[in-house]
Amino acid sequence: MKHAFFTPDFEASNAIATPQLPTAHLPALGLDLADASADQTIAHLLAPGRRRAFFMNAHCCNVRRRDPDYARAVADADVLLPDGIGIELAAKMTGQKLTANLNGTDLVPALLTRAAQMGKSVYLFGGTPGTAASAASRLVQDNPALRIAGHRDGFAGAADAEAAIADINDSGADIVIVAMGVPMQEMWLHQHAHRLNAPLTLAVGALFDFLAGTVVRAPKLVRRAKMEWVWRLAQEPRRLAKRYLAGNFAFLAHAGKTALAHTPIADIQRRFLDLALSATALLMLSPILAVTAVAIKLDSRGPVLFRQTRIGRDGTPFTMFKFRSMGTDAEKRRAALLATSDREGVCFKSRNDPRVTRVGRFIRRFSIDELPQILNVLRGEMAIVGPRPALPSEVAAYPARALGRLSVKPGITGLWQVSGRATIGFDQMVEMDLSYASSRTLLLDVALIMRTFGAVASGRGAF
């Protein structure tokens, strides 16, 4: 046999040498899911050793709750991959954000491209008669270097498990992809994967149908909007209505209930306060937001909103929104101005920053430039009250003690913001933020929000 060299001792030694794939535990789902980029995941799956990988979406989680056999199959898998907007929303319920959406339709073709470069072969098992063959043809058309070891349908071809196992092993395949639908495909692998010689086995759902062209995938615009499930529902409303309508509602309700059970009551109260205040502010301040947008557009060329990567809770990067108060070349000029900072320490701040526009000086004076961060609060990336979010370059230069600022969500306002803003030195700012993080209460948050109005009106430290 081609894979006779995969002895238990060989696999054990390689399991030690192979870096572990980063994972995240999602309390809302009770699952440990891969928390890695597509490239990291592919490298891990194709590394030496045996692995069984399943993709987990909202439907899979619903089936797992009611089917104990499927739940056992999921628990026995080596790698669980987050698939779809439902998993992303479940993570957000407990303030988590996974690195990537690792759906099978995108990940598996990329994995097979890399496998072909490594000289590995693949066996396709599942689908209606002829679908696996058509999928194999499409894969080879897109990637001529890929070796198809064999294919077999999931109906008559799956009726005799012994014959299917023998055919797969005789093919010498390095990778076996099973597409029989949830939960059959995962349960088949749970029962038989240990008898397959292939080091990597995957359960992939509707991938073969997409590759064969029997089901048309949603346009990229729809996928980017994370609404692919709506496209699939429109294609097969009768078959998929229960899964996507009733199923999605049941999934979110259960995930939300579980998330609440794992969330301290103070965090729930604080999040409610954030949502209530930010939604109200967005409505009441909409005239100011509109006038500011027009003024920025008339004053200088460039976009109205400025987007910048900042570091949030637990070191997670996110895109922060502000009204643009500088010229469009501000980031390029920043390095040359670092020596002119009026604040001691890591964080740059210049009272006479030449990059600031005329409108920019006004909206900075009254903190109007910060208002778009209401969107970050609504998205759960920021809070109303918390340490100001730092740049990645600033966090990289932090002393160890300053990293404690990252233990809570960054905020629009906070203790040092109402105490002098840019006039506060870096070391003092860190101590204030650490003090807030260790003793914050809902009452303290409300007090800081009230003090913010006075700080904005005085303009102290606003530049």
From TrEMBL:
InterPro entries the record matches: Bact_transf, WecG_TagA_CpsF
GO molecular function terms noted in the UniProt entry: phosphotransferase activity, for other substituted phosphate groups
GO BP annotation list: polysaccharide biosynthetic process
Keyword entries, A-Z: Exopolysaccharide synthesis
UniProt keyword rRNA processing, yes or no: no
Entry keyword annotation includes Ligase: no
Start and end residues of each Bacterial sugar transferase domain: 270-456
Entry's family note: Belongs to the bacterial sugar transferase family.
Protein name, UniProt field: Bacterial sugar transferase domain-containing protein
